[in-house]
């Protein structure tokens, strides 16, 4: 038994266990980051989702949340397998890492392919959404999303403030509104009756340009996080294989001894 104990605590095995533990800490942090980004996207930017006809953006946010949870659970399994030196659990841990790695590659390819589609749909539909759904019955989500978009990005209209001239709400308004109050630099009731540049935002390119920049920046962040996690997973899979092999050799040596 003493020989077996010494065999199981060789320098190589101990170093691998510490390295795998460090990996799991980093993996947990990465999983927590992905989870936080997903929750932040849903909680803080959900108003913009109503402006997109495509479900790709909202689906991406929920995929991030699911991935973050899976990463955290996978890290817990890895720690249990490492501390208890359970080779079967190490195999499960390796398979989970590999599956998440494949999912990240697939998600990355889909994100790249769908971005062009989302961007095209956004340019086509944002103006129509603003003109036909703003302040209309049953479209409270769109109205809130448009107001938040114009205030946060300091813009007015899809391409310019002139887009509002064909809005159903403007055409049927009894208050001689030129643009929504959310276009005003200092929002207040009925301030949209005056569309002078000193009163409203006249951003070149309108809100569409700012929204495109926002979506692209989100994709870049997700891409950077994905690449970082993928690198960690490759390292984790190599360490898992090495630890599995060391435990197998140690146990074999102990039995022979």
Automatic annotation (TrEMBL):
Pfam families per record: Tetraspanin
Protein family according to the UniProt entry: Belongs to the tetraspanin (TM4SF) family.
Subcellular location(s) of the protein: Cell membrane; Membrane
Protein name listed in UniProt: Tetraspanin
Gene name tied to this protein: cd151
Gene3D superfamilies: Tetraspanin
BP GO annotations: cell migration
Entry keyword Nucleus: no
Lineage of source species: Eukaryota, Metazoa, Chordata, Craniata, Vertebrata
């Amino acid at each position: 038994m003493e020989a077996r104990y010494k065999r199981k605590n060789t320098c190589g095995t101990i170093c691998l266990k510490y390295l795998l533990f460090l990996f799991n800490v980093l993996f947990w942090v990465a999983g927590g980051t992905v989870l936080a980004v997903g929750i932040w996207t849903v909680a803080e930017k959900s108003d913009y989702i109503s402006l997109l006809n495509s479900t790709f953006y909202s689906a991406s946010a929920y995929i991030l949340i699911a991935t973050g949870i899976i990463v955290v659970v996978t890290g817990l399994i890895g720690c249990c397998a490492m501390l208890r030196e359970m080779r079967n659990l190490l195999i499960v841990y390796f398979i989970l890492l590999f599956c998440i790695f494949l999912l990240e590659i697939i998600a990355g390819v889909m994100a790249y392919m769908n971005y062009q589609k989302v961007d095209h749909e956004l340019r086509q539909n944002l103006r129509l959404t603003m003109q036909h759904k703003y302040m209309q019955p049953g479209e409270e989500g769109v109205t809130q999303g448009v107001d938040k978009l114009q205030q946060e990005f300091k813009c007015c209209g899809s391409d310019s403030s002139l887009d509002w001239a064909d809005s159903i709400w403007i055409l049927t308004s009894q208050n001689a509104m030129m643009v929504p109050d959310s276009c005003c630099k200092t929002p207040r009731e009925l301030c949209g009756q005056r569309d002078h540049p000193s009163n409203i935002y006249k951003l070149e390119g309108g809100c569409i340009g700012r929204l495109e920049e926002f979506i692209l920046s989100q994709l870049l962040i997700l891409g950077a996080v994905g690449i970082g996690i993928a690198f960690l997973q490759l390292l984790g899979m190599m360490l898992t294989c090495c630890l599995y092999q060391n435990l197998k050799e140690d146990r074999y040596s102990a039995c022979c001894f």
